[in-house]
Amino acid sequence: MKYFAPGFASPTDAQGCFRGILQALSTPGVVVPFTRPVGPPPGLSAAAASVLLTLTDSSVSASLPEGDDAARDWLVFHAGVRLAAPDAADFVLARDHLDLRQLRQGTDDAPEDGATLVLDVASLEAGRLYRLTGPGIETERRVMLPLADGFVTAWRQQAQTAPRGVDVIFCHEARILGLPRSLKIEEI
Amino acid sequence: MAYVAVKGGEAAISAAHSWLAEARRGARDVPALELAQIKEQLSRAVDRVMAEGALYDRDLAALAIAQAQGDLIEAAFLLRAYRTTLPRLIDTDPVDTGAMLISRRVSAIFKDLPGGQRLGPTTDYTHRLLDFSLETAGAAPAPVPAAAVESIEKMPRVTDLLGAESLIENDPSGDETPRDLTMEPVEHPAPRDVRLQGLARGDEGFLLALGYSTQRGYGQNHPFVGELRVGEVPVSIVPPELGFAIEIGDVMLTECQMVNQFGGSKTAPPQFTRGYGLCFGHADRKAMAMSLVDRAMRAAELGEDASAPAQSVEFVLSHCDNIEATGFVEHLKLPHHVDFQSELETIRAMRAEARETLKRAEALGALKRDETKRESETP
Amino acid sequence: MKGYNFAYLDEQTKRMIRRAILKAVAIPGHQIPFASREMPLPYGWGTGGIQVTSAIIGPDDVLKVIDQGADDTTNAVSIRGFFGRVAGVRTTTHTAEASVIQTRHRIPETLLRPDQILVYQVPQPEPLYKLEPSRAATRRRHALAEYGEMHVRLYEDITRFGRVATAYDHPVMVNQRYLMSPSPIPAFDNPKMHRMPALQLFGAGREKRIYAVPPYTDVRSLDFEDHPFHPGRAPHCCELCGSTTSYLDEIIIDDKGGKMFACSDTDYCESNRSDAA
């Protein structure tokens, strides 16, 4: 018999995680800690597990990497989420760089149908220095981000078909960082 | 007199609720209504509240009617709000109205037909004369012979008789899972499954008026009642643990199949087209109105000119939910003094500007008159 | 409260609303359709704002609810009481103490902070509805950023009255992309939305739309170079606290047409008076 790591202990824990995600996307580039994250299954950070469990259920679809059976089983058990391919899913979990352009972009009528990419990374303070500007930021915010090669190019291309696009949540241990599609990212 | 900022909204609301409870109870020397009385003796009100509340539960509907002092839209609102809180356990299998235990079944298109014309407990042929014997509570009606109130199982559908000769368009295939308009917001143009759901819970009065309008020329259907049937239909589910269907109860439904103007051409064989109505309880008027409006809303799909109000899907669906409608209409009672104040200031400013403009014009006019006068006086 | 989930809505509904809120924040000013639920208050009475608040609120929040700028108007009392019952959250009338402020038709005079969230009740989220009643049609206009009709409509006011006549719910352009209804706040309040430090969330329950303006986002009232936007206000001061800058309520005090003006924002007014004391 399979044993799954438990889900949220209470609705207020899920609410707490949601407020963290909301803050991460409203104030992009700021690292937001989860104070009461869910205990993750093998293969997922507490942050990624919490983001997925907070936001998914049987009415949306998610894509997890091939071979991530423990994480997939855990999420399907707790959330009842439908599984889908990365180019069709509402939520896409990945560990390395994924080409944003391969994910669902939404339409001009319904740009909100663009996917949410949940990137479970090795560190939130690695990589190069970037300047972030746009909604949520008073002037500019300079952050180190673990962006893969080609990410900024893909991000710039995405901006050209705005407001269609993908929103990204970086996860590490029990902390997240949000990049809504409205953001402008420049290498410093 | 010094102005003291008004407080006391909370106390006012509390007092209002107390008064409401008094008004709801009415004269204390009159016995309080029992919910069973509402359920049994005001069953048409119960049916309507279940239909518009979109929740089949006669006891809850009776409670809502009592709590709402008989205001049926308020009662439907109470049921809807309660429905929101209920966990959604499972979707039932589609009900088979062909398997209905029929208490009433009539057809306007054939004089006689298999199963016969069964009037059931209808007011259709009563004379609308107030029956003053009802003033005496407990006056029991003369007992009716048992056979006359018997329900009959499994009458064949009239529309199937037409269908056997291919005279009527086929029912659309029932394989796809219908959308649930309570789980996804309606996007227009809405497909037929969503339209029918909207109509099933739609306000009876609104749909009645729209259906009536189609009969008077605002979108023409040439409708005939193919069949109107009322009775109990079993409801079944397939629990995942069992893997087979089990019956969990019955609901009373009214179903109207309207046979409408035939489509087709010299080359495509003409067929009658359908309008469909289905609602909880015994509700001829609602089911019939629904079927007229359903057919009207199919105008575009059937290649007809769609310019009448009943034919505008967005117009009908946006306005047929009386809980939405009454909420917004009645919200006008809420304080709006801030916006009104900004209108007042705008109007005052515009009027002041207009006065200024007028004054300047007059001054300019007076100046010109003076000049003209002086010129004419100058030798 | 027994028998009900925390903050009333079930978790599935909250997730649905939460997903909509996050996309709304990522696409400032764009209306996201959501499967609005029937609530225990009628549609048109704040169900959208209530659903948003219900989805975001937690036990550590402090909630303020205002209507027409005041905490004590009947519907604000009713909604505050509702959340007290179903969430047990601490409530307050002081803007500075609140973490979540639900409002109908006003923005508080007190400058809001980055740790605060302002939730607006919106009766009609579609800024183009008077020009085009079909939502299917307006959806296309927003998709193509086709807003010329609205500019023409406002200019018609100028040719007719000599000024823009929209006193409230004056449409705004958000993040230079979406035309948005700010909700029926007086035009006077529009400038507060521009680059507000707090997050602004908008809920329309009956029309089933959620939208958002992130902190420090560009929000500009539609206007013209030769007729710039003018946030009007009664040319008086508050008789209770003396403010010459706050939005005022006009109060009739006798049956001879005698009137006085007082701050619409009751907390702001009281704070001024207690500061002065």
Walk me through the topology.
The complex is a heterotrimer of chains A (188), B (379) and C (277).
Chain A: H1 11-26, E1 32-33, H2 46-55, E2 61-63, H3 69-79, E3 82-83, E4 91-94, E5 116-120, E6 128-133, E7 141-145, H4 151-160, E8 167-172, E9 175-179, E10 184-187
Parallel strand pairs in A: 2-3, 2-4, 4-5, 5-8
Antiparallel strand pairs in A: 1-9, 6-7, 6-10, 8-9
Helix pairs in contact in A: 1-2
Chain B: H1 9-25, H2 35-41, H3 43-53, H4 58-67, H5 72-85, E1 101-106, E2 152-153, H6 158-164, H7 192-200, H8 204-215, E3 224-237, E4 246-263, E5 271-280, H9 284-297, H10 313-319, H11 322-330, H12 337-377
Helix pairs in contact in B: 2-3, 2-4, 3-4, 3-5, 4-5, 7-9, 8-9
Chain C: H1 11-26, E1 32-33, H2 47-56, E2 62-67, H3 74-87, E3 90-91, E4 100-104, E5 117-121, H4 135-143, H5 148-161, E6 172-174, E7 178-180, H6 190-193, E8 199-204, E9 209-213, E10 219-221, E11 248-252, E12 259-263, H7 266-276
Helix pairs in contact in C: 1-2
Question: Could you estimate the helical fraction of the residues of chain C in percent?
Answer: 25-40%
CATH architecture of chain A: 3-Layer(aba) Sandwich
Describe the sheet with the most strands of chain C: 7 strands, mixed
> Under CATH, the topology of chain A is which?
Rossmann fold
Q: Assembly state here?
A: heterotrimer
CATH homologous superfamily designation of chain A: Bacterial phosphonate metabolism protein PhnH
Give, in spatial order, the strands making up the sheet with the most strands of chain C. Answer: 1-9-8-5-4-2-3
| Secondary-structure element pattern of chain C, one letter each | HEHEHEEEHHEEHEEEEEH
- Major sheet description of chain A: 7 strands, mixed
Low-confidence stretches of chain C: none
Mean pLDDT of chain C: 95
- The CATH class name of chain A reads Alpha Beta
Question: What is the β-strand count of chain A?
Answer: 10
Roughly how many Å apart are the termini of chain C? 41 Å
Summarize the structure.
The complex is a heterotrimer of chains A (188), B (379) and C (277). Chain B is of the alpha+beta class and 379 residues long.
